[in-house]
Design goal:
Order of helices and strands: HHHHHHHHHHEEEEEEEEEEEHEEHEE
CATH superfamily of the largest domain: Nucleic acid-binding proteins
Radius of gyration: 32 Å
Structural class: alpha+beta
CATH class of the largest domain: Mainly Beta
CATH architecture of the largest domain: Beta Barrel
CATH topology of the largest domain: OB fold (Dihydrolipoamide Acetyltransferase, E2P)
Helix content: 25-40%
Number of helices: 12
Number of strands: 15
Low-confidence stretches: 182-204, 209-220
Oligomer: single chain
Distance between the termini: 33 Å
Largest sheet: 6 strands, antiparallel
Strand content: 5-15%
């Protein structure tokens, strides 16, 4: 947010909340202003993080010199977000709603009818702008002549709502068609067929009936068919254990879009990181048109927050998610720090340096240690302590490259001879090497 734009937003808020937002309010105070504006509302920690992120997004929307494609992508992402929400947080008002309104209202005023409610228009944004400027929920004092003129009846294209029953039937037909196309027989009524076969097997044979009728020996009891001896069940073979290897760790290039201080922990940052996840991936969300993860890292006080903005890093993406002071963290940012000497305690004072992917690497690109290639696990089982066992081998070289030294990992002693002795470098698919700024012989975690 530029200084002039930030002052304009503060002036806009001051006009509606003169006692809560004085003209001298600093831009950095806005993320925590929601409770002051709406004291009856309680915000969870994840919601506080979302407010801060939406404030950043509001500053990036409607920037005159921004790339048009990127701008359209952000508007589209916001439009989709609002399609199932009344406010940015769902139903709770926040300072972010006022910021988005302040940013977008002038742009919406200039939109054509097609841009507003056409087939490819931003229907939900237009509805949202009208709601924010008129609903008492937000408490905004906007003069009538400054409001966006929106005719709620002027809709150029009506999107047909999805009928749950029709959608279920459609999916059922698609599944049947896919099965037919793959020559897969549908097992409909399989239970009935079994019953019919059973009935046929019990039907009397005419010859046997006649024979039985002419038999005078009533003392002979029919013999029962001998039961076939069942073969003993073979015990299930336990799944083969995958040998311990650093390839089990899902290491990827990540792009930090935004980082803020954790609202409840002085030592933590909360970063919004694009890691190349496809839409629908568990524990992800959408931010500015990208699928992202929220990641808590204990770097506050060790790395300036300015160095955590809009930068590429290396992330560990298959650790089990953990909630840190109310916010779920679903990855880990790799950083280097001096290796502790024997008997020395970790005081977490640094120095600490983030691991840098090679120039040109893109978010989501897999990285691995040379000679240890392979597919990573989906989610590492915490009981097997894969990360804890392998992390001591993560190191930096005299040339400031990041590498893996199997010889220092207790469970891999002797295995390094098969893979080649020495430190194996952390590289991208294109062969670029991951590095640190200045720490030699450091531990990486």
């Amino acid at each position: 947010m530029s200084s002039s734009d930030g002052k304009e937003l503060i002036a806009f808020l001051h006009s509606s909340f003169p006692s809560a937002i004085p003209p001298t309010t600093a831009e950095s105070d806005l993320p925590t202003a929601s409770h002051t504006l709406y004291p009856s509302i309680t915000y969870t920690d994840p919601e506080k993080v979302d407010i801060s992120h939406w404030l950043t997004t509001s500053a990036r929307l409607a920037v005159p010199d921004e790339d048009e494609a990127k701008h359209a992508e952000r508007l589209g992402s916001l439009n989709i977000h609002l399609s199932t929400r009344t406010t940015l947080l769902g139903s709770k008002p926040s300072v972010a709603d006022a910021a988005i309104y302040h940013r977008l209202a002038p742009a919406v005023k200039g939109w054509s009818a097609e841009e507003r409610t056409g087939e490819k228009g931003y229907h939900h944004i237009v509805r949202y702008i009208d709601f924010v400027q008129n609903a008492p929920l937000f408490g905004l004092s906007i003069p009538a002549d400054e409001k966006v003129d929106i005719d709620v009846n002027d809709v150029k294209f009506v999107h047909k709502p999805i009928d749950p029953k029709e959608e279920k039937e459609r999916k059922k037909k698609e599944k049947a068609a896919a099965a037919a196309a793959g020559d897969t027989p549908l097992l409909v009524g399989k239970g009935k067929d079994k019953g019919q076969d059973h009935a046929k097997s019990k039907a009397p044979n005419p010859e046997e009936t006649a024979k039985a009728a002419t038999t005078n020996d009533t003392t002979t009891q029919p013999t029962k068919k001998e039961k076939k001896e069942k073969a003993p069940k073979q015990p299930k073979q336990p799944p083969k254990e995958t040998p311990l290897s650093p390839h089990l760790i899902d290491l990827r290039v990540g792009h930090i879009l935004k980082a803020i201080p954790h609202p409840n922990a002085d030592s933590l940052y909360v970063s919004t990181i694009a890691c190349g996840d496809p839409p629908g991936t568990e524990n992800t969300s959408e931010h500015e048109g990208q699928i992202v993860r929220k990641v808590c890292s204990g770097l506050n006080g060790l790395i300036p927050i300015s160095e955590m903005q809009d930068r590429k890093i290396i992330a560990v993406c298959n650790l089990k998610p953990v909630t840190m002071r109310g916010i779920k963290s679903v990855a880990m940012v790799l950083a280097a720090s001096p290796r502790l000497k024997e008997g020395e305690e970790d005081n977490h004072k640094g120095p600490v340096e983030l691991v840098n992917p090679p120039e040109g690497a893109v978010a989501g690109e897999r990285v691995w240690f040379q000679g240890w290639e392979g597919e990573p696990e989906g989610v590492l089982n915490p009981k097997k302590k894969v990360w804890e066992s392998l992390q001591p081998g993560f190191t930096t070289t005299e040339g400031l490259e990041v590498g893996f030294e199997a010889g220092v990992v207790e469970a891999l002693k002797g295995v390094e001879e098969e893979r080649g002795q020495g430190v194996r470098l952390l590289v991208t698919m294109s062969g670029g090497v991951c590095t640190v700024k200045s720490l030699k012989g450091a531990t990486v975690r």
